[in-house]
Amino acid sequence: MIRQCRASDIQRMYFIINRAAEAYEGIIPADCYRQPYMPLAELVKEMARVTFYGWEADGEIVGIMGMEPVKDTTLIRHAYILPEHQRKGIASELLDRIMRLVKTPRLLVRTWADASWAIYFYQKHSFRLLPDKDRLLQKYWDIPQRQIETSVVLGIDTLTA
């Protein structure tokens, strides 16, 4: 079941993000990986501007995905599924829900260039790699230059999707 996350879910969301982000260790540049991957204070800030949806199984959230309208587009933010619940269609269901809620003409997602599984997931859902990723990252995200250098942006036109 998908539901919008609430402030009371923050500890569970924190756990999911940091547990699922362990997959990045040894994949993304070492200077970009840390534990916790997202400190609790950062998640609190993100919850103020990102609408998160969670997949609940047996009364507990096991995956999350957020959406953030920015200017003339919407960003997918913080898509994480607990490892033991991956490859069960949860991320696809969350993405489908977000795609139905988007009111902007474009939906973008940023991920690490070396996270091939994430890139494949979005491409499987009709997203395409965008060649102007540096410009897009500077326009829509507030991330360090090192993250810009090591990321890709995928997008989909929501009016035709």
In summary, what is this structure?
By secondary structure, this protein is an alpha+beta fold. The protein has one domain (2-157): Aminopeptidase (3-Layer(aba) Sandwich).
List the main descriptive attributes of the protein structure presented here:
Aminopeptidase, single chain, 7 strands, globular, 6 helices, alpha+beta, 161 residues, 7-stranded mixed sheet
Describe it for me?
It is a single chain. The chain has 161 residues and is of the alpha+beta class. Helix content is 34%, strand content 29%. The protein contains six helices and seven strands. It has helices at 10-20, 40-49, 90-101, 116-124, 133-140, 145-149; strands at 2-4, 51-57, 60-70, 73-81, 106-112, 128-129, 151-157.
Main beta sheet: 7 strands, mixed
Radius of gyration from CA coordinates: 15 Å
CATH superfamily: Gcn5-related N-acetyltransferase (GNAT)
Strand neighbour order, sheet with most strands: 1-2-3-4-5-7-6
Sequence-ordered SSE layout with sheet pairings:
Layout: E1 2-4, H1 10-20, H2 40-49, E2 51-57, E3 60-70, E4 73-81, H3 90-101, E5 106-112, H4 116-124, E6 128-129, H5 133-140, H6 145-149, E7 151-157
Parallel strand pairs: 4-5
Antiparallel strand pairs: 1-2, 2-3, 3-4, 5-7, 6-7
